[in-house]
């Protein structure tokens, strides 16, 4: 919990302000989970602060919530390319994905339980950044990621907006997006590494190679010599 709270503070996720009159103040809770390694062993336990988005009011503290969902057929197609062309595959796990984009709406939330500021106990959090649990959080995150990819000259597919395509001379990269899990394949490992540097600078990412845990399934790519 302390690590998660510290990350929220470093990210300047909110400002503590006096509660405005007649505003909608969301409650929140801590959610605990375990993160596993590709072999199923425990990597670490984690805590996540989640806003109770069901308390939000349409048109008041959230608007459009649509965010595209990956089509399974697209995943199967790209896995087929990996196997047939022996392309390198990388899985990218984005740290605190929903916390990166700046909110457009005015959203207020109570201070997290266990971390109430003793000097301002009656103040509330005016959210500057998106946070898990908000109704608009998936859309805000996808917008943030899309902008980072466009800055690297990726283009979204017209048939599946969760697929991003990069073409430059003879280099081709494909990226699949499923919430905060990204899958990258391509013809040039050097360009993929340049992309990783770009994503780390914008989104604090980490990489898992060769073994893919995606959509609740585990895929191991074996290339014959």
UniProtKB/TrEMBL annotation:
Name of a matching Pfam family: RVT_2
InterPro entries cross-referenced by the UniProt entry: DNA/RNA_pol_sf (IPR043502), RVT_2 (IPR013103)
Domain Reverse transcriptase Ty1/copia-type: 11-215
Protein name: Reverse transcriptase Ty1/copia-type domain-containing protein
Annotated source species: Linum trigynum
């Amino acid at each position: 919990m302390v690590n998660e709270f510290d990350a929220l503070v470093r990210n300047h996720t909110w400002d503590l302000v006096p509660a405005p009159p007649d505003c909608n103040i969301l409650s929140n809770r801590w959610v605990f989970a375990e993160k596993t390694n590709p072999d199923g062993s425990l990597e670490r336990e984690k805590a996540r602060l989640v806003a109770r988005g069901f308390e939000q009011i349409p048109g008041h503290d959230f608007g459009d919530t649509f965010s595209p969902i990956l089509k399974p057929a697209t995943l199967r197609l790209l896995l087929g390319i990996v196997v047939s062309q022996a392309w390198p595959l990388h899985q990218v796990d984005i740290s605190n994905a929903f916390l990166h984009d700046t909110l457009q709406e005015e959203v207020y939330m109570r201070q997290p339980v266990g971390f109430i500021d003793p000097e301002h106990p009656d103040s509330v959090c005016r959210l500057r950044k998106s946070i898990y649990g908000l109704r608009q959080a998936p859309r805000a995150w996808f917008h943030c990621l899309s902008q980072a990819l466009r800055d690297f000259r990726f283009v979204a597919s017209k048939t599946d907006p969760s697929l991003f395509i990069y073409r430059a001379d003879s280099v081709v990269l494909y990226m699949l997006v499923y919430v905060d899990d990204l899958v990258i394949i391509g013809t040039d490992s050097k360009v993929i590494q340049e992309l990783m540097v770009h994503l780390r600078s914008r989104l604090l990412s980490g990489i898992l190679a060769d073994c893919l845990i995606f959509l609740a399934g585990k895929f191991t790519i074996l290339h014959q010599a």
